[in-house]
Amino acid sequence: MRLGMLDSAGGVLLVLSLAQCGGVPMESDDEPLATPTGSSDWPMYRGNYAGTGYSGLTEITPSNVNTLTRVWSYSLDRTTSIAGDRGPNSQATPIVVDEVMYLPAADRIVAIEPETGQEIWRHALDEISGAPSRRGVAYWPGDNSVRGRIVFVTGNHLRALEAETGQPALGFGDDGVVEIGVPYNSVPLVYRHIVVIGANTPRGSIGGIGNARAYDVRTGELIWEFDSVAQPGDVGHDTWEGDSWRGRLGANAWPFYFTVDEARGLLYLPLASPIPGYYGGDRAGANLYGNSLVAVNAETGAYVWHFQTIHHDLWDADPPAPPVLFDITRDGSTVPALGITTKSGYLYILNRETGDPIYNIEEKPVSASNVPGEETYPSQPIPVRTPSMARVSYAPEDLVTSEETSAEHAAACSALVESLGEIVNAGPFTPWTFRADGDPLRTTLNFPGGLGGPNWGGAAFDPASGYIFVMSMDVGALGWMVEADDDAVGPYRKETPRSPNFEVELSDVRMPCQKPPWAQLTAVDSRTGDIAWREPLGVTDQLPISKQNTGRPGRAAAIVTASDLLFIASTDDNRFRAIEASTGRELWVKKLDGRGNANPMTYRGADGRQYVAIASTDTLEVYALPD
After folding, report:
1. Cβ neighbourhood burial of 310 (10 Å; 0-12, 13-18, 19+)
2. Averaged over 143-171, what is the pLDDT?
3. Nearest-angstrom CA–CA distance, 331 and 152
4. DSSP 42
5. CB atoms < 10 A from the CB of 269, how many?
6. Which of 582, 349, 556, 388 has the alpha carbon at shortest distance from 471?
7. What is the pLDDT of residues 272-309, one digit of tens each?
8. Which among 549, 541, 539, 557 has a CA at the least distance from the CA of 614?
9. Looking at the DSSP assignment, which residues form a beta bridge with residue 74?
């Protein structure tokens, strides 16, 4: 599909040709058309419903990737400035469908030529409409009576545009807009005739329904809503003591995207911790479906199975991304599998049909809390075969020294440790220590910290090798519990030092205080559960050259291609990298103009060239081999 230049706010500027439009009605029953999945396109946030981040393209290879060069860019900033605006800080992954790229910018949704970056149409959004999600848009191809649509969110509104023109889809809600109540800040999932969205509940409050919801992509009507806190009669309702479930909020589905098993019609919901997140004395029990992966019927929202990654969470260490879906061949049979990562640092490999572990997971005893009234869950599920993706413990000998980084850094970290008093770490899932007035100074240090481990980028999967690729970081979290003020929500609250993380700032860069590596890219062989390779990802430029390969924090993920390449930005050293997928060897690196805090994507243009795109703070940067 190649369209003319249109502006939905200012009328038609130029109309060229419409050919093979994926949204043009076809002669069939009122069934949704199949979303394009050809290797030339990138039709959804992670490339496919399985969330693998995989592309079958092979033009860019390990032997020529070092010649990759930027061929065009597109500004994601506002078209008109607003006082106090901090810029887009984009986390967007574009989609490409039938030779058209769609993506959000700070104040608009655009369709652009994927070979040149020239706009085809623009749908402007004013301050009343609200800014679009900075993470992406979704595409629906249409059916025999409704043309294709671009679906996205602006806070508490779900919106649909005509894919051909960028005009509001008038049959959807009220002139293309549906009020959704609790906002969602990420990318809707379009599956058949439904649109699935999550919920971003207000920070620090006891309010905010965290339920995932599904709407009809044609009309905007609500189809189903899944209760993220198990209600009376639901599986798991007995994991809440007494009436502690009643009015309990949080446990929200906030991922940047969702995954679905097309063959089985199963949608996977990763759910966060209940609110409040650091004190659970008023919610004894495992607290389902908090911190769980829940499989539901995609068409009805009906519960199918769940796997809880943390019982009675006190760390806000939820599964931040949906699972990646893949198959494993074992003993001559195919096992439908998935891998779900968590901010607690673990990768759980499960049967995606049943939720049963494929590799052994044990309930291991963990330390008990000393906070009055807190009933820490006595055990947590920890994989036996697959090592953690991140650091999950700390001992005094783990403190960085000048041999690993620099004398200045080691001295600053030693001073930080001195200021914390006794450091408390009992391994994975160490509860926050209680400090009463007059108590000696004690501070809990938890790894991998509040940012992960793995974060919202998710995992990638290569069907050729069977490798699962996970980006993770280690930035320890510091804190303790104290008595709360009389007007507080609960009797206890978490406090932190001025800097809540186990790191110091030197030369305008933050450096963790444990020995490197501070971030790693890991390949796990899904056929065995073992680590195939693990490499630090990211450099600390301020250190001596021989010590710079420390790994740097990042939340985004990699994509993988059929030519044995991984592409990843993510890290705060502002690099975009190509990695040999089979070995972890870095093959190409490019310094970006901004932070590549987004998942990349790749596609083939109408000119036959393979392109790779990454959002870099306020600019979409697109790369290809030289002509």
Report:
1. buried
2. 97
3. 43
4. B
5. 27
6. 556
7. 999 888 999 999 999 999 999 999 999 999 999 999 99
8. 557
9. 620
